[in-house]
TrEMBL record:
Domain Restriction of telomere capping protein 4 C-terminal residue range list: 98-222
A GO cellular component annotation in the UniProt record: nucleus
Main location per the UniProt record: cytoplasm
Name of the protein in question: Restriction of telomere capping protein 4
Species the sequence originates in: Mycena pura
Functional summary from the UniProt entry: May be involved in a process influencing telomere capping.
Length: 227
């Protein structure tokens, strides 16, 4: 069989048909620090420390596999982060309604089921909270195409609106504060932001939240957050 000519020189996977300017920049950087190391399945293979090519390989997989869907569904690639804190604050009444009647929230019911399955009894409550925080739930939920930057801004806005004062008189849930913010209020907020952005239903927004998670992490990692 003929060897494909458009393979990544580092992971040997197919590259996107069209590369973005950022992908080309990363490719040039790696080309300057790598050396030819042909293999039978990829004559263009090059040798470089794996950690140095991770961002490039993640990026080209995203552009090959996810970017076409992002373009087709009109996911914002450059969200307005300057207005995001204010947009989250505008959701206060909706979020307060969730705290008052949490059993109407899909995310609350999911978090409650996960948490209670680990707690079992009040004696195990603190242990369960610690275990629950170790679960990579962010990988399942995140902040959609807003990435880490959007997650951080949204989380700070929620902390501002609903501080951990120990009482929370209008809250009808016994979930620990951190879990309530991360597992319930944050995804509820992101879902509504996505609905606003794309004028879609909540079910469609939930689907896009999951589908666009990796897309957002690559485009908007926390290291890009302005000081």
């Amino acid at each position: 069989d003929a060897i494909p000519c458009n393979l990544c020189p580092y992971c040997d996977e197919p590259l996107p048909a069209v590369s973005s300017a950022e992908l080309l920049r990363l490719a040039q950087f790696l080309d300057n620090i790598s050396s030819p190391s042909p293999v039978p399945e990829n004559p263009a293979h090059r040798d470089v420390n794996l950690w140095k090519c991770q961002d490039y390989c993640k990026r080209h997989r995203m552009e090959r596999d996810i970017l076409p869907l992002a373009l087709a569904q009109h996911w914002p690639q450059s969200p307005d982060f300057k207005s995001l804190f204010r947009r989250v604050l505008a959701k206060r009444a909706l979020l307060q309604a969730i705290l008052t009647a949490p059993d109407d929230s899909f995310f609350y019911l999911t978090a409650k089921m996960e948490f209670t399955s680990r707690s079992g009894s009040s004696r195990q409550f603190l242990s369960a909270a610690g275990q629950f925080q170790q679960v990579d739930r962010l990988g399942k939920i995140g902040a959609a195409y807003y990435g880490d930057i959007g997650w951080e801004i949204t989380h700070k806005a929620l902390q501002f609106m609903f501080p951990d004062d120990g009482s929370r008189p209008q809250c009808k849930t016994a979930l620990p504060y951190d879990l309530l913010l991360r597992e319930v209020l944050l995804p509820e907020t992101v879902m509504r932001l996505v609905q606003d952005d794309l004028a879609i239903t909540d079910m469609a927004a939930k689907s896009i939240m999951q589908a666009s998670h990796g897309f957002g992490l690559i485009l908007h990692p926390s290291s890009d957050h302005p000081d």
